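Title: Prediction job returns without error message
Component: structure pipeline
Severity: low
Priority: P3
Assignee: unassigned

Description:
Job completed but the reporter wants confirmation the result is attached to the right record. Sequence as submitted:
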Amino acid sequence: MRFFLLLITISVSFQISAQTSLNMNLLYQWKDTSLTQSIIGSTYNEVWGYSNNGREYAIIGSTAGTHIFDITDINNVDTVEFIPGKLQGSDIIHRDFDTYQDYLYIVCDEGPSSLQIADLSFLPDSVPLVYDYDILINTSHNIFIDTVSGHLYSCGGATNLGANFLSIYSLVADPTNPQFIINCSNDVPFWNTTIGYLHDIYVKNDTAYCHAGTNGFFVVDFTDMQNVQGLGSLTSYVQQGYNHSGWLHRSGNFYAFADETAGMDVKIIDVTDFSNLLLIDTIGSNQNQNLSKPHNVIFYGDLLFVSFYEDGLYVFDSSDPYNISILGYYDTTTLPYVFAAGNWGVYPFLPSGKILASDEQEGLLVFDTSFPVNVQSNISSNKLEFMLYPNPTKNELNIITTKFDNFKKYTITDIYGRTVKKGEIVSSQTKIDIDGLNIGIYIFSIYKKGSEKITNKFVKN
């Protein structure tokens, strides 16, 4: 794996007045003063969201567990469910969430804890806990689910194999019964000496963007779990600190990551060539050049949401990644710069355009904005570019590509990430013999020019 040194960077500066908000309006806030504070003075952590059947829900973690609210009618918010954590109290600092299909996945970085899976399909009536075991995951700092491949990535913490850098599980066969695939420390030869501990990860189509703290930023291909490949890295760059978390722009060409270090800006990098990752811009809250610290970042369309701890929640327009501008912000806390205060996370994906945020002391916050947030209609879809049939199938697959010139090859992998068949796309309609495959669920991936991958599942019966 090659290492690349930053060649050039462009700094963006914003003039912000002393007001506490811009183009963002607080609609609702929840906090429970009876909850125990953690040993570092925080009470709340990650925030997540879910929508189904025209209703919207906010999810927030605390020192006690997971709290779920129906926020469909912001003037009549209903507490739907509380899921106690296996471990509760002042030792709890981190909980993390992700969703797959209609299931909520919950982990905690302090233990002894467990992986919890809750069924959201019964909302708004109830949220039954369908899995609560430490058989696979005891503690985890962060989880990310690649919903295309159905793989759950668990960063940090501890598994049944001991201390964990990164472990991967399949949810395809049964979302309520994760199946272990690999532990990178044990199963990927270059992992321990090159990447090591992962603090956070973003994954799309089995391409993982890895945040390895002081070791930097890495891009890794997990298409073949038996032959994991490093694609690129950025281990030296301007304003380098603790590489914490990041998110991919919808174009797939740009990536934003946060160094969780005081005085560091968010970095924008060009990822069109993984072998030559280039940092092209830095953006900050510009409140305190020595103490301001970004935590979590999320792209939604061309909007970049950044949790800046004590400085609050910021939203930037990244439609031109080389000329990013500020759209709005909200200062979620009045506390000074301390070790653990302010805006922890953000969730911007609700259909209504409501923005969910969590503050370590102030709890759940729900915002609306004076700029449009629901950008789903502007996001291009790849689903019409190829189709496969019949599904389920017994002996063969027919692949039709509506833009044949864009494609070059395909792979078929099982639920454990093992490549069981691969070949070339030879025409706009290609027939593939799968008679030799075992009965089960498989992932069919078609590769576009430029290495972009589009994926679909099929069943062999």
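Comment from assignee: result matches the submitted record. The chain has two domains: 21-378, 383-460.
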